[in-house]
Amino acid sequence: MSALSRFIFTLTAIFLLALSHVVSGVEPEIVINIERNGDAFIVDTKFDLPVPLRTAWEVLTDFDNMTGILSNLTSSKIVRRDGKILYVAQEGLARFGILSYAFASEREIRLEPMKRILARQITGNAERFESELELTQSGSATRVHYRAEVVPDSGLARTFGGRFIKHEVEEQFTAMAAEMMRRNAR
């Protein structure tokens, strides 16, 4: 290999190494669509992360440690297990501008390991909450596709519902994505 070839090879390697550090620190582009259907808000969210599917799954299902991941949670615990079904109780305070909203819920979480998480509110502040989160591996990245149907419990919540829900979904998935990246870097 000539001196010029070695020089070009070295520059290319340095560039690719530097690029990998830049890419790994980039926040994901979280695409969130909210539509209203009567009293319900329909959420459709997608994003890709440069982490293994297993890392994404571990963060998304770490309910007992979720208060360390999501800043709006004050309590999160698995209260019962029944095979691949978990019952999770969470409490917290969501903020939107000058408004804040205390919440509490218990949800039934159905796990299809490394593929899908189905959630249904049993008790809580919303009239109805159901969601589905699907994970797929695409090369070295993981695609997250989240869909939810939320019926708020009050007129005030319905008035600000779409913007508030979008804000909360973005905040929560940004925090979970950061935790996935942190765990993947270990």
UniProtKB/TrEMBL annotation:
Q: Which domain of life is it from?
A: Bacteria
Q: Which residues cross the membrane?
A: none
Q: Mind telling me which InterPro entries this protein's record contains?
A: COQ10_START, START-like_dom_sf
Domain (Coenzyme Q-binding protein COQ10 START) spans: 49-172
State the family it belongs to: Belongs to the ribosome association toxin RatA family.
Q: What is this protein called?
A: Coenzyme Q-binding protein COQ10 START domain-containing protein
